[in-house]
Design goal:
Helix content: 25-40%
GO molecular function, one term: metal ion binding
Order of helices and strands: HEHEHHEEHHEEEEEEHEEEEHH
Keywords: Iron, Metal-binding, Oxidoreductase
Family: Belongs to the iron/ascorbate-dependent oxidoreductase family.
Strand order of the largest sheet: 1-2-10-7-12-5-4-3
Number of strands: 14
Organism: Rhynchospora pubera
Protein name: 2-oxoglutarate (2OG) and Fe(II)-dependent oxygenase superfamily protein
Number of helices: 9
Structural class: alpha+beta
Amino acid sequence: MEAALPPPPLPQRVQILSESGLANLPSSYIQPPSLRPQPHSHSHVAPSGPSIPTIDLSSSDPAPQVRRACAEWGAFHVINHGVPPSLLNEMRSVGVKFFESPMEQKTRFGCDLAVGPAAQGYGSRMLARDDTVLDWRDYFDHHTLPLDRRDPTKWPDFIPNYREVVTQYSNEMERLAKRLLSIISQSLNLPPSYIEDAVGNVYQNITVSFYPPCPRPDLALGLQAHSDMGAITLLIQDDVGGLEVLKDDQWVLVQPLEDAIVVILADMTEIMTNGAYKSSVHRALVNANKARLSVATFYDPSKVCKIYPAPPLITAENRAKYKEVVYGDFVRSWYGQGPEGKRNIDALLIQ
């Protein structure tokens, strides 16, 4: 029998809280004043302002609505999407059970950041820079596609059906992502498979994020403002709420919608659509009294894939707005510099 490996260290947030308690917020989690949530952000009263669009995928032609939502928001809810509501509930349920488990069980599946910033497993810090303000978040990242990356033995074994639920959820999210990318392509009069073909060999990660109660939600963020790197992100949240998207320089709370899935356009789709559709800048708030859970499924190109504006969208009047980029280079920049809104994709703009 092989000797048991030592458990990975506790997530840094847990270490700090175990030492300092909840009376004060450790300075490493305090956001600069300009990035802190506004006072109204901590209210769970429905905002009077706009919210992201909701699109019924069972309608005869959702493409016009998708086009408008992608151009104006970069994020939208989908309903009647074909994913069983029971599976959405099971995915949230196994996630909650994992994060509520004893620390010694969770750390058995701790991620090893020595292998890279998006290492599979349990952790609390994903960015590489030591000077980054920390997110008030724990997470478990699952590598689910391509199939040769999918290794359920690296996922929790102490929660009944955990591995089966994540596997089924991965398959359903792949199906839905392909359907949505087809609609997005057609909404720009591109061939239905254009974006899917451009993405190539898809890499899918499923990240379950857990945001514990925070003693000072006015000073901290669960996840700092950023746009996602890949093609498209599919997200479900619980009924606590806390996801915000940036629209016209204003933060808009995405109210939880039962059985809906939030669709978030990512940077590579902005490039492929030559800026016709914008990736969504979003962030996660924290709550003083309640924990919050979300599940994000990232649908991304392979690291060697070259991404560039779709040639059919380039004309004499509408020239290419973005440089070609190898996706792996873009990812390294994103993790190396930190997200900070959309500065990484903005660096690819052709002046």
